[in-house]
Design a protein that fits this description.
Layout (H helix, E strand, L loop, with lengths): L10 H8 L10 E5 L5 E4 L1 H7 L3 H4 L4 H4 L10 H5 L10 E8 L5 E10 L6 E10 H39 L5 H33 L7 E3 L1 H14 L7 E5 L6 E3 L1 H18 L4 E7 L10 E7 L29 H11 L3 E6 L5 E8 L3 H4 L1
Parallel strand pairs: 7-9
Antiparallel strand pairs: 1-2, 1-5, 3-4, 4-5, 6-8, 9-10, 10-12, 11-12
Helix pairs in contact: 6-7, 7-10, 8-9, 9-10
Length: about 375
Amino acid sequence: MSVGTSGAPGAQAGEHAAHACDPNDLPDGLVVADEQGRVICYNTAAERITRIPAAEALGQRLEKALPLEDLEGRRWWQLTDPYGGLAIRTRQPERNLLLPGGREVLVSARYVRGGPTGPVERVVVCLRDTEARRRTERSHAELIATVAHELRSPLTSVKGFTATLLAKWERFTDDQKRLMLETVDADADRVTRLIAELLDISRIDSGRLEVRRQPVDIGAAVGRHIQAYVAAGQTADRFLLRVEQPLPQLWADPDKIDQVLSNLLENAVRHGEGTVTIDVTPAASPREGEDTGTSVTVSDEGPGIPEESMNRVFTRFWRGSKRGGTGLGLYIVKGIVEAHGGAITVGRAPGGGAEFRFTLPVAAPAYLT
């Protein structure tokens, strides 16, 4: 159903606007009433959410076409009085309302006026199914449960060792004390990492993840991570680093790129098998001779990621196995890459294992500041 129909007020203007933007393409319900309070637009999503056919709603008074009540049983349009209320009011914030039969729906409204205090010419209503809110609430509940579980184990360990040391300090040898304190130190690091992950998630979800760009040698950055793994006991031949030169100059946040590399390499080492291969190459360009960015591919020779899990890899709480981790790392990796204007994908490596590939675009310093 396009904006307006023949016989409905404002039909010609609505149909003209529909050529530019079809309201049926919108994921949320859209209801528009004209200056007389009659519905001139009722999109497909509104039909689905309200279960009221557009043919019944178009041309009707808004309060009749969309009979909403608040949770106390008051009629919403009488309560808010969009056409006769305060002349400076331009909107109603989203809130939970009830349709006939008691079904919940999230509703917000915008009042389009002829001037700062002019009469209302349009009332634009946005409808959202409460299932979206329930999914958000479930996600928040899962996050709280995961955080509580991940914090409880290290904090229990810290509390246990410190209480034991304080109560029985003289009974332990220096080596025993050192072992306990090293365990406390490692658990404190674990808590710190979890808190950092939660802060990153908060910034990603709110669009406030800051990217402090400067020139980054991505090949050298990968090399440092490999050296750290070798120093920690991994064999040097476990890793194969291939850097294709010349690379375009990369302007990125070095700390956050280190975070991305650390997570991808840790996944390959922990969950993969065989050689971990890292390829750093210029990103392909549709036009020959022009670099669009830098691509980094991390692959292993392990069992790989099951096909049915591919579309969930970058969601919260996804774990490739049950061997530790919060399941938040790849979600954060995707957020960091996208904050740089890049993209990340997952697939199957030529050797059969998992293959992660992220691309960061070329950008000039003046653009990045």
